[in-house]
Amino acid sequence: MRAEIGIDNLKAKDILDNGGLVGIPTETVYGLAANALDPLAVSNIYAAKNRPSFDPLIIHVGEIADFQKYTVDFPVQLLGLAEKFCPGPITFLVKKSEIIPEITTSGLEKVAIRIPKHPLTLELLNSLNFPLAAPSANPFGYVSPTTAHHVYEQLGEKIPYILDGGPSKVGLESTIVGIENERLIIYRKGGLDLDEIRKVFSGEILINDHSSSNPQAPGMLDKHYSPNKRIEILNDFSELQKIHKESTGFLRFNTKLEGFENQILLSEAGNLNEAAFRLFDALRQFDKMEIEKVFIELVPEKGLGVAINDRLRRAAAKS
Ligand code: TXA
Ligand code: MG
């Protein structure tokens, strides 16, 4: 099989109605979608991604009213965030309704649910009579895709169709939130930053995105989002005389280093939104260069920079 790339939502719908897989654009990253209510279709997602079956999937719906269909007792504390930010880069981890099969949530009682902000995908979702389970459309552990072409390069042999909605505007996966003991828990830092969330949620917020003790959420494991090159975070770029220039790449925020090649700037203007938008494509570009190692500069730890640095640290993590 070789995936076709196109903008034909009827074709995408037809494949999904018949239990197949389709690459879909979202504002965060591209997803690998299948009918979330069909256990066989969902099992094909795990197989195509090489994803362990204990790592649950996010389901995607077209409108807030769908939250009632697929979840139970949606916490009132989350309603303000849902109204303000959906469609958008936020995912709610809440109690699932019985019609969601166990395989979709890896047997967990909670389901992760979101409304992606992308016109083509929203149109598709609203034409289907089931939600779409869709993890990021990359092999397990690798960098997430932000273009149809990224999906094609890695999963093109395994799926029939990729909907091309242009480059993902945000470029980082959604922020995952839920309520525990009246507090808002951030399970994954992502494309909606904490400052935005704080404007709407006035209660206590706890960040709990470290799951080394919780293998049920490996997307939050230390090592993730990893390109194939060795990655190292460098805090001091002034001591680089000894390195082998030709075999080293540099990922920099907004300024180039004098005298080095193989450099990618995330945002010359120093804009964190632009940096997020370019991050995953930059990591993929290094994988194609004839280099052995990439030195990375962290970006300012504010706004979207918090989630960008999270991805950079995980890309550099040893295990
Ligand atoms: O922006 C996004 O969220 C993208 C686009 C395609 O929507 N999707 C995405 O999915 O990033 P994925 O599968 O790559 O990451 C989902 C993360 C994983 O770390 C998974 O373990 C966690 O969410 N997750 C999903 N359902 C869960 C559940 N029921 N309980 C705990 N963690 C869950
Ligand atoms: Mg992923």
UniProtKB/TrEMBL annotation:
Catalytic activity: L-threonine + hydrogencarbonate + ATP = L-threonylcarbamoyladenylate + diphosphate + H2O
Residues holding L-threonine: T28, H60, R114, A134, S174
Keywords annotated in UniProt: ATP-binding, Cytoplasm, Nucleotide-binding, Nucleotidyltransferase, Transferase, tRNA processing
Predominant place of localization: cytoplasm
GO CC term, one of those recorded: cytoplasm
UniProt binding sites for ATP: R51, S136, S144, R188, Y225
EC number of this enzyme: 2.7.7.87
UniProt subcellular location: Cytoplasm
Signal peptide as annotated in the record: none
Residue span(s) of domain YrdC-like: 6-192
GO molecular function annotations of the record: ATP binding; double-stranded RNA binding; L-threonylcarbamoyladenylate synthase; tRNA binding
Biological process, per Gene Ontology: regulation of translational fidelity; tRNA processing
NCBIfam families named in the record: L-threonylcarbamoyladenylate synthase (TIGR00057)
Role this protein plays: Required for the formation of a threonylcarbamoyl group on adenosine at position 37 (t(6)A37) in tRNAs that read codons beginning with adenine.
Family as reported in the entry's similarity comment: Belongs to the SUA5 family.
PANTHER family per the UniProt record, alphabetical: SUA5, THREONYLCARBAMOYL-AMP SYNTHASE
Stated name of the protein: Threonylcarbamoyl-AMP synthase
Organism of provenance: Lacihabitans soyangensis
Phylogenetic placement of the source organism: Bacteria, Pseudomonadati, Bacteroidota, Cytophagia, Cytophagales
